[in-house]
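In the previous chapter we treated chains in isolation. Here, by contrast, the input contains two separate entities that must be folded as one system, with a combined length of 480 residues.
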Amino acid sequence: MTSFERFAATFLDTDVALRYAPQILEGVVTTVAIGLAVVVTGLIAGLALAVLRACDLKLVNLVLIQVVDMLRALPPLVIILIIYFGLPSIGIVIPSATVLWMSLSAVLAAFAEEVFWAGIVSTPSGQWMAARSTGLSYFQALRFVVLPQAVRLAIPPLTNRTIAITKNTALGSAIGVNEILGQAMSAEAFSANATPLVMAAVLYVLIFIPLVIASHALERRHAGWRR
Amino acid sequence: MLSADDGLSRPLLLEARGVRKSYGAHEVLKGVDLLVAPGELVFLIGPSGSGKSTLLRCCNRLEEPSAGSIRIGDVDLLSPKTDINQMRREIGMVFQSFNLYPHLDALGNVTLALRRAMGKSRDEAARIARENLERVGLADKAKAYPAELSGGQQQRVAIARALALEPKILLMDEPTSALDPELRGDVLAVVRGLRESGMTMVIASHEMQFAREAADIVLFLDDGVVVEQGAPEALFGAPGHERTRRFLRDVRY
């Protein structure tokens, strides 16, 4: 056996690939579903937190900033493990897929809040003054003048962060979520062959490359009106 | 010509008395009176940092005065009972740096407050916006975004945005200072047209020539106080205070 044949037999075994393809494709459905759910809830929660922070309530902001900083500092896996293995001991049992979705949504919300907040803060004060001088309320000025600009400013850093956090759905394998990596790992264990892991890698690339490309297109489109 | 002192003998549209504003220990306005009758054009001149902008912003409460009283017509602007958002629709403001909304086209800039603050329908707001863009000579720029307009055009859209709400008074904070000399004329022509149509205006500006031609009253502010005020020919022709003379000499008027 040449070394290439040995390499091919370990990583590119067609029989193994065909046998475990249905199982791994099921994982794709799970990954995409949880990933999309994380993006939607994470970004909405992040925007809501940034708007809440803009309300400038001292006590609320004190708590909000602490929690957000904590979520940003903790490795997502630690959050996932604490919720999944910790909560049952106080009688709260949450399905593993839900734990994964909740944890990653919270982490994405924390980062998104910071990015949206930076966008709100960096919108020139003249925009607030102009809006308020025409009789718009604080919230109308925020909603119709400041947020549209803040969101556009937030898009480039936010797409990167969103992709980075959505990829963490692979951490679900640690708590038995049957997403791509979990399915691939169990297939690898059963077949004693690394081909399923290569399939997983290829599938991750196929899922996330279009997102990366789409984010570039989004950035270009929103660069239009800026001076 | 009425002088600004005899507030009791004429109806006043804007009556600001004893306005003070401090930022920490720094007092920017040290008790300023600004009295404006309907149809008047009042000019505020003075070195930068003299308090002109702060005074204008106190007049629509973009800045909260530390002390003093401000009335617009019969309404006490500083009363907690006053609906400030409602009042601001009657007090138009134009800024040195235009402050157009970059994500909206010219029409969108003008219609936003019509729709959201006044609750007008989309069609009604668009009709009013087009009228006002036409008034400032930009009927053909309704679909242009701020970044596609020259500074002078942007400032005229900003004026249209303020006019669309049919304000009783227009406050202009150095409306031409950010513009190249050749673009100032367009904006000043619009201001002149407003004056002829009877709009009440308070303008902080260094356009001394324009002040001399068009103003009813000129106030010279320095270091947070009104040093001197009067009709333009008197104030420019025979300033009574050394500080006024020095300022006019420094700006080489």
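Residues 1-88+201-253 of chain B form a domain with the Rossmann fold fold (CATH 3.40.50.300). The mean pLDDT of chain B is 93. Compare these points with the single-chain example from earlier in the chapter.
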